[in-house]
Amino acid sequence: MLIRILLACLLVTPVFAQNTPVLFPEPETVRYTSERLPLSSLTVAIPAKAPKEVQFALQELKKLVGERAGVGIKTSNSASAARFRYAVAKEGGALPDAGEKNGKSSREHYKLTVSGAGVRVEAETSAGLYYAVQTLRQLVSGAGKNAFIPGVIIEDRPKLAYRGVMMDFAHGGLLTVDEIKRQIDFLAMWKTNQYYFYNEVSIELKGYPTVAYRAGYSKAQIREIVAYGKERHMDVVPFLNLYGHLHELLRSEQYADLAIGQYGHELDPRKPAINAMLQDWIKQYTDLFPSPFIHVGFDETWETKRIADDRDGRISSENLWVQQLTFVQKELEKYGKTVLAWTDMNNYYPDIIKKIPKEVIPVIWEYKPDTVEINRYLNPVLKEKKPFFIQPAVSGWGHIYPDADYTYTNIDLCLQAGMRNNTLGFIHSVWTDPVEPFVRASWLFMAYGCIGAWQGKVPDKKDFTERYSQIMYPSVAAGMGKAFDYLAASNAALDKCLGRNTAGMPRGTIIESWSNPFLPYYLKNTTEHVADFRNARKLSELAQGELITALHTASPKDTAFIHSMIVTARLMAYSATRFLWAKTISDRWDESMLQRKKNDFVVYDITHLCHGLLIDVMDENGELKTAYSEAWKSEYLPYRMNTMLGRFDVEYALWQKLFLKVIDYRIENKPEHVADQSFEALFKPDF
After folding, report:
1. Fewer Cβ within 10 Å of end Cβ, the chain: N or C?
2. pLDDT tens-digit profile of 561-611?
3. Where is the Glycoside hydrolase family 20 catalytic domain (predicted)?
4. Is the whole-model pTM more than 0.90?
């Protein structure tokens, strides 16, 4: 077999190289040959005595490759007869531990050889075997009886030991457990090995019955998620807030006295009851999450700073911060945990990095595509020679659909800075602050960051959506790739119109997307940006067309995702429509009544019962509310859904009230009556 492989390597042809499969992440070394292995000839044995992690990887081989090609892999009666062979050097090593070093660990290393004779995988641990299976899935070409795997020799290992995604389970909708599992499966494709579960008070705790009641996860659900991640070689890491960002606890009268300020956001470190509570929480959380790591937040503790600035100059808010972090670290050390904490308060306390406990690993987060901003937080950590993680984000919290260029550049710059300065790991943030956007819209960008973390460099963004779609949606790749690009372009057009004055709130267009479009400011803004609003609508409609077409031939497992993306595209179009229609209605009335002094069917145009401009908006609002509700239920728990649906109700009332006002005005006056006031002055459009 070795001779066959060596001979095949000499027969690599340029023609074949041009048609090689898309592999994300790109392996360290890839050598294609002219051989190919018909998938129908591939067989695998799953020994009953093999470790569970190995058995799972082999079962995944049957499942994933079968899904990709539409043809099952046959089970062999013996390992010696199987055409898929593997060697795992040692047991254990399913998850990363706290002592791994970049480029020095072979835990995730694998070598994959495919020839006409079969497949051979050599791995140090079951993690390497599992990642070889993920690569093999992408290597499959064709479908059904014509499916095959090209001859290839691949050797691969990650550039970074720790590659994670932080999912927000505090601000927006709460993902169902099934959706979390789908995310973990998705991230495993890109060889991600950490899933940070960002929690403020969305996990039920013994002794705190009102915490997370009908608004969070039970301990049984968390254990289910942790176990699911472990099977896929992904460590579910607790990401807690043990200082700030605890408003959902502190707004309760039972716990309000523990806060700084009235119904505030931060625990008051000066109160002894705080640490007693945290000791209880830490015991419960460490029992729930076996991960060797724990992220404790400690970001944006502005209220502590205001104690000293505004009330009592004798207090050192910096010392309180260090005191609290030291306490938390010491408590977690008792449970063998390695503590991670954010460093953004360095912006307020320039010397704070040298004061944090040496055992705490700083995590540098910066979500702007700005090297100066990244270095502002990175340089103090480098000065103290501390090991660190770096954390960019998907810019999806301020937009219905993420800002593509902003996100890509932020990820690229953070990864470059991390690689240049030997970061321990990479954590990719996904925030849900405005609640409305679906997390599924961020999946493309999550993949981009995860792929970059394994490779040590990001993919080429010029053709990323196209190549990503070939892997994710092989039967509808062209359409999905176009849809992603249209959505990104639609968001870019909206970004020219909205989001100008939202400092202090989530950056982006979503803050203004439900504002009253008849206000003088917005009518003027729409007049200045008519072309951009129209372009946003057109691009969104093009995206909808591609997505609707894709539904007809897409894999059934992808239809729920595509439906969510259609709703996202419709929301973007609606955001532009409501501003354009407000201007169109006002202009139509004013031009007819005030300029030409002629009532030429203007009421008909605005209020026609099935095709009027006001009815247009009400129709789309109502249909979109139903579609949004369906998409929400397919991704999220019920918590916060009514908050979002209420936006549609208030919005509908605006247009319905206007409709009735215009109708009543028409009834109260003669048919030939010409108004002497502008539309806004006469009807005073308001919620």
Report:
1. C
2. 999 999 999 999 999 999 999 999 999 999 999 999 999 999 999 999 999
3. 161-367
4. yes
